[in-house]
Design brief:
2 helices, rod-shaped
Length: 49
């Protein structure tokens, strides 16, 4: 029973970390793609930030 309780505590945390990591990766990916579309770095910085 103790093992089951431990697993139930660990899994949600791991799941939240995975979700957060996926979200951060997606945000970075969008920023990079956005900035590649604008070849002018100053314009890219203004638009993407």
């Amino acid at each position: 029973m103790r093992l089951v309780d431990d697993v139930n505590l660990v899994l949600p945390l791991h799941w939240r970390e995975e979700r957060l990591l996926a979200k951060i990766t997606r945000i970075i990916d969008q920023s990079v793609r956005c900035c590649i579309e604008f070849h002018n770095i100053d314009r890219a910085r203004a638009v993407c930030n």
